[in-house]
Write a structure and sequence with these properties.
Elements: H1 8-21, H2 34-41, H3 45-57, E1 61-64, E2 68-71, H4 81-88, H5 94-98, E3 104-105, H6 118-131, H7 146-160, E4 169-172, H8 175-186, E5 192-197, H9 201-209, E6 213-218, H10 226-236, E7 240-243, H11 257-269, E8 273-278, E9 302-307, E10 319-322, H12 325-338, H13 344-354, H14 357-381, E11 396-400, H15 407-416, E12 419-420, E13 422-423, E14 437-441, H16 447-464
Parallel strand pairs: 3-12, 5-6, 5-7, 7-8, 8-9
Antiparallel strand pairs: 1-2, 4-10, 9-10, 11-14, 13-14
Helix pairs in contact: 1-3, 2-3, 6-13, 8-9, 8-12, 10-11, 14-16
GO molecular function, one term: transaminase activity
Pfam families: Aminotran_1_2 (PF00155), GntR (PF00392)
Cofactor: pyridoxal 5'-phosphate
């Protein structure tokens, strides 16, 4: 049975209920009329009526004769057995997992601060204040510091042999802000967004917050089933396809060059914008990954989001978006509304470290250190009957436990033993699979913590089983 398909009235119901839950409409507020909502969502009036009736039956809205539908107060909402059960369950969002104080931190895809160039960065901070004594007295432009955009354009041209100028680049406060801005610009309620399955949980949440209709395509060690991608594009006409093709989060898979070219061709054919999220491109262990998808784009269908925070300084929150000309003005507008430009000081500090020979030396040492940590984690996991595919880069292992071991429930036991991880369910756009999968990040804990923490996690799993 294909659980991905829903009746149209159920999608309208979900749209209404999500907006009520996030207080777009508060208790006692009048809801849009059936006619208004059917026109807004381009559906039949009977479809909206069925959605409203479903909300009414559940005590979430009430009807005033000849006046319409209104939001029901929580005090008059019926209590059922399922809600009582949910009240006693402990579930976690990704941000809540990250906030747990544990000794063995395997949930955060961050690099151990001891592996980052903290001493060198402090030198560059002093240098920036010498070179730009008024850096704290002015704003950056909305698009980002011109000097930084020039430097990044030269870097991309040299690295990937692409035609690019500073005018094609937008600086954002990290890749997550970039995704949020893109979703605000492109996604209206019930627009279809295609995502990989599993996928980056923060991206899932961002697109859900725009009331997008999410359609998932499995990502495998070899990449995608491109025939299925084409079928989904043809059938659903997605507004966006969000991809993370290089050391994919959470699986670590890398999509091969031939598929990258074909995917760009499909996006052009079916008028679908590809949003390419590339946070780990430089964190490879043996050989560099294939060029980004945007390098194969000749029609302006790919927005390339490149983050440098992970391996330079997470605190600077600097990411670069390579944006097709037709989309630039719209993104500048939403960026201006968000913060009027990322902090200039952060951009200048990043610029001078990024331009230095020290960065390449740092990267070479960092790759070795991270590969060692990955191998330590894998060495400990080899004592189990768990399965995973060893990635060629990135910060994570995507591990499958023997069925049936629900990792979302296992997480609470692990946290009680001071170990954290990311349950697979959080990474599922459909929220219905990967119950026995978990993401383990090997980049934050030191070598001793990795050994002790993985052993402790294994004990928790064995006890739970």
């Amino acid at each position: 049975m294909n659980k991905q398909r829903k009746y149209l009235f159920e999608e309208v119901y979900e749209y209404l209920w999500q907006r009520i839950e996030r207080s777009d409409w508060k208790t006692g507020d009048k809801l849009p009329s059936i006619r208004e909502l059917s026109m807004e969502m381009n559906v039949h009036r009977l479809t909206v009526y069925k959605a409203y009736q479903m909300l009414k039956q559940q005590g979430k809205v009430f009807v005033k004769d000849k006046s319409g539908y209104y939001v029901q107060g929580s005090s008059t909402s019926p209590i059922d057995g399922h809600s009582l059960l949910r009240a006693n369950e402990k579930t976690y969002t990704l941000s809540e997992i990250h906030q747990q104080s544990v000794q063995y931190q395997f949930s955060q895809a961050l690099i151990d601060p001891n592996l980052l160039p903290n001493h060198f960065l402090s030198d560059y901070v002093k240098k920036v204040f010498d070179l730009y004594p008024k850096v704290l007295s002015t704003y950056s432009t909305v698009q980002g510091d011109m000097e930084l955009r020039d430097t990044l354009a030269t870097y991309f041209i040299t690295r990937y042999k692409t035609h690019l100028s500073h005018d094609d680049i937008l600086i954002t406060s990290g890749s997550q802000q970039a995704l949020h801005l893109i979703s605000q610009l492109f996604i209206k309620p019930r627009d279809t967004v295609l995502l990989e399955r599993p996928s980056y949980s923060a991206a899932i949440d961002i697109f859900k917050s725009q009331d997008a209709h999410l359609i998932a395509i499995d990502i495998q060690p070899y990449g995608y089933d491109l025939e299925k991608v084409e079928m989904l594009m043809k059938q659903y006409k997605p507004r966006l396809f969000y991809v993370n093709p290089t050391f994919h989060n959470p699986t670590g898979y890398t999509v091969p060059t031939a598929q990258r070219k074909k995917l760009v061709e499909l996006a052009e054919r079916y008028n679908c914008v590809i949003v390419e999220d590339d946070a780990y491109h430089d964190i490879y262990f043996e050989k560099a990954p294939p060029p980004p998808l945007y390098t194969f784009d000749t029609a302006g269908v790919v927005i390339y989001v490149r983050s440098f925070c992970k391996y330079v300084s997470p605190g600077l929150r600097v990411a670069a978006c390579v944006v097709p000309p037709a989309m630039k003005d719209g993104l500048l507008t939403v960026k201006g509304l968000a913060d009027n430009g990322s902090p200039l000081l952060n951009q200048k500090i990043f610029l001078h470290y990024f331009s230095s020979p020290r960065l390449q030396q740092h990267l070479e040492k960092l790759r070795i250190a991270l590969q060692i940590r990955k191998e330590i984690m894998e060495e400990e996991l080899q004592k189990t009957n768990w399965s995973w595919i060893s990635p060629d880069g990135g910060l994570n292992l995507w591990v499958q436990l023997p069925d049936p071991l629900p990792t979302d429930q296992l997480l609470q036991k692990a946290i009680e033993n001071s170990v954290s991880f990311v349950p697979g369910l959080i990474c599922d756009p459909l929220q219905q699979g990967f119950s026995s999968s978990l993401r383990l990040s090997y980049s934050y804990a030191n070598e001793e913590q990795l050994r002790v923490g993985v052993r402790r996690l294994i004990e928790v799993v064995n006890t739970y089983a």
